Here is the input.
Amino acid sequence: MKVLVPVKRVVDFNVKVRVKTDGSGVETTGVKMSMNPFDEIAVEEAIRLKEKGTATEIVAVSLGVAACSETLRTALAMGADRGVLVETEVPLQPLAVAKLLKALVEREGPRLVIMGKQAIDDDMNATGQMLAALLGWPQGTFASRLAIEGETATVTREVDGGLETVALALPAVVTTDLRLNEPRYASLPNIMKARRKPIETLPPAVLGVDPAPRLELVSVAEPPRRQAGKRVGSVAELVQKLRTEAKVI
Here is the structure.
């Protein structure tokens, strides 16, 4: 069974995000970038399926600028077999990403797509659901457990009320939550091997998709600074301030 794993290049989660001075977006020049943490979990789960003998090939795909190939190399070092980069300078929005992934799925023919539930840069949590809808495939989102038996994927989902278990007929789309697994570190020998693994580069036009944004970004601004606390001299003063100044959120 072939497994396709989309991976996104994002600002590293340890980096404090800064807004550009002109308010046009987030500053990425000279900023450390890495693979989206939820996508790391997806890659790890695909590797575990291969180690069990369930998956036969893992194809990592990334969409965006040429530097996304570095993210693909990370996936290859973890254990993916080959990579596909859809290279474009156009800022990609979730619907365009879902359409490009749909075209790649039709081109590669995987039985399972495993992807992060969301990216930490925009927290959209939309691409997996859009992809499943476009493909007409069943979906298991927010997966904290995944088991494959024959042509059925059993997914334990994290929902507001606790856990929900669903059975999906393959092919299917699964999006990963934090508790699904703990991604492995790539070993030095695997990092060296990853340099020799193939990465195919395609323009969006080859896939028949126009990635032009449908939404216009007006401006980006940092949240307002939190105001400093105030000292009160007595319990009575505290109660008075709570009555007259405290805001209900």
Notes: The chain has a mean pLDDT of 92.
